[in-house]
Amino acid sequence: MWQAHESLQKRWLKQKHNKKLKIKIARLVKDMEEYAKKLVQQQWGQTCDQMSGNLHLKDTWHLLRFLLDPENCKSAHSKNIERIIHGHPLGNKELLKALKDIYLNTSSPIELPGYAGSSNPEMDEEISTAEVRAAMHKLRTSSAPGADRVTNKALKNLDDSSITAITKLFNHCWKKGELPPAWRHAKVTFIPKPGKSLDIQNLRPISLTSCLGKLFEHVILNRIQTHMEKHHLFPDTMIGFRPHLSTQDIMLRISEEVVNPLHNKHTRAILALDLTKAFDNIEHEAITAALSALQVGERTHSYIKAFLSNRTAEIHFGQLKSDPFTLGSKGTPQGSVLSPLLFNITLIPMTKLLAAVPNLSHSLYADDITLWTTKGSDGEIEYTLQTGADIVSEQARAIGLSCSPKKSELLVMRYAPGRKAKDTPVPIEIRMNNALVPEVQTIRILGMYLQSNGKNTATLSKLTACVHQTNRLIRRIANKHTGMKEIDLTRLVQAFVLSRFVYSLPYLSLHKAEKEKVNCLIRQSYKAALHLPRCTPTDKLLKMGLHNTLEELIEAHRIAQYERLSKTPTGQYILKDLSISYEGTHTRENPVPRDIFKHLTINSIPKNMHPIHHKERRNARAKALEKLFKHHEEVVYVDAAEYKVQDAFAVAAIDNKLKHITAATVYGRRPEEAEEAAISVAIISTKAKFIFSDSKTAVRNFAKNKIHEAASQILLRNHFEPRQIQIIWIPAHSSHPGNEAAHSFACELVNQAVDQSCLRGSKERMVTFQEITSHFRNERLVYPAPHYSLTKIQQTTWRQLQSHTFLNPYKLALMYPGLYTPKCRICEAEKADLAHILYECPELQPKAEWHLSNQIEWETAVTSSKPETQIQAVDWALEVATKQGLLATSRCQEEAHH
Fold it and tell me: Are 377 and 343 part of one and the same domain?
């Protein structure tokens, strides 16, 4: 077509007054445009089809997030940065200097004081290879490298000799209290803040530091965190960046103490304080002094001192690049692993003073400080909050920080039934730095919106926008005929919709109408994912077992949160303080004994090893391991199986010749506890140097140096013969002789058939979010999902048949009067509804062997999970639609056949 266009253009240049030639060119251009549009649609359809079944790939999620928010991607950020550069009046050097002055501290460095605490031999021990490996397991391969270009992916794939060399390097730095300059150098880039004007004042700095240096930080972070948690040095009101704690724990406290309707008859006030650029301005002297007070040991203190001192940076802004420069003696390094912990440690004295204020509750999540009170008169509430605000202001000033009254907010919730305008109460006023903190009608606490009138319109409006945005995304990537299939679209709803719903809604006091609106939004999302009309009956949708109601989500979320909180002393304090009685199902986690842990090597578990999606990769790994260790004698395979009548497991171990070595009974509730115990039994009772387990969780727990009580006691109470041991994960049920033999041995011990599930089933209490929500869905499941072998149009038709929303002449006539007739095209019946066209029309009947001749048989068919039954029902429905002249469904059938 393009060649024809060029040929006609050449002729036109010689015959510019030829009207017929002009018309011919115009027609050709129109044909080319239509063809180009068709090609674009085909290419986009192919892209959407390729995404189907590939949600395990990061590229798929990158594309989906781009479609959801095009302004929040790398290409958009780069374009916006270029706009700022070209539109700014300053020159390149002046612009880089302005960025340095705004976002980086370049004050004169000072000499930091030495360690003033007591010695701590345990913290000052040499770093072991096992600690380095444990830190490697936490590295994210998606993290960008620093200036040295060493990536986390490269570090995670190092061999044993390289890890040993890195450990020696770390110990050299550890003993001397010095760090290489490259580990203290940062490459600082910027991205524009979303929703704000493009200006150098509205940027977010991102520091890229050495991945090798961050690996060292992970090692030290693990030591300090273990020391802090072991001696309970963190206050129970400090939540941020601590294991098994979350922002939602602060929301839970506010929900129970402020939002709960039981407190509606009292005045309640919440004060959210803002520390101006807290991480950038905190003094290094305050950090080192706080570390000394916590008795972390001289080597740890020296490391932090070296970590903070003589840091350098260079700014990269679009194509602009500054020369390296030295940073000042303020601020925790942006983007570093240790920064949140160091900031938390410095604020510990503040929390102790706040805890001493009567009737004042408080919580800290990094630099987000929230104070609230619900007791006393308005005057007493004002005095209590003012006292807390003064403490925060004074303590912040002592460590180089300052509070911003303009960015801080006060929310007052009063009980005023029938109050008249003349009874307006005296406002509660809080002052900071001689300025009044503004009172607001809506406050945002860690992503949860609260309103002074007790309503939730702000939250619901944002969730509604989120649902509509996700529904538009679904319409772009799928329709009834092509694109992503049902299983993928429902995952998108869970990722983009339900995750936001369960973040804050469980902590709000929702009225009946608000709950119904939320349930309606949930149903809208799933109807969009299934390509069902909005008029789909709710009872039919519920019987598909695809989604949970708001009430079910809240119940599951609360139980899962209580279970998580019961794992830690701080979590237990929160539950007790809120008078929540909950008995957790977990056992205590303990570190592996030091003299054993330093002899362990836990190999990384490969990615993309899903038991369904990656069967070939799992089988290939099993074959490779069998070939590699076939002739090794010091190899042991372990497994566990559950007893039917008690909370106990049998653990078993066999050697490389498939001979039974040892077995034991372990009491516990969870499979991972038994799998950990099986590994511990192999460590103690055998001379194995290679221990294979098919439990990812157990292997990872050993790598994290956190195992449950049963495994810990086995290691502590028995003699360990020192030797280097590798713990290796092997895929379960991948036909590996050793793993299969260990599995059979464990099952024999509990008198179970090999082909049955040998791990915990019905006796276990449901405590995870997934377990509880799945239980609710399965309880009402009547209409099974379409078989994966069905095409997209077949899957859509299957759901339409189940929900009784499959189009028919009678329904179309009601929807479009005058355009469609309600009569049957075949037999001229007056009312051709769904039942008539599927099985009541005497002129159009399905085959007798299909068993689709009456309502009962159709109900039986649409509740079947057999693929042949589903295909028969769907094909008959599409054939009927074609013969009834339903053009949309006729097109569907044609595309399905193609």
Answer: yes
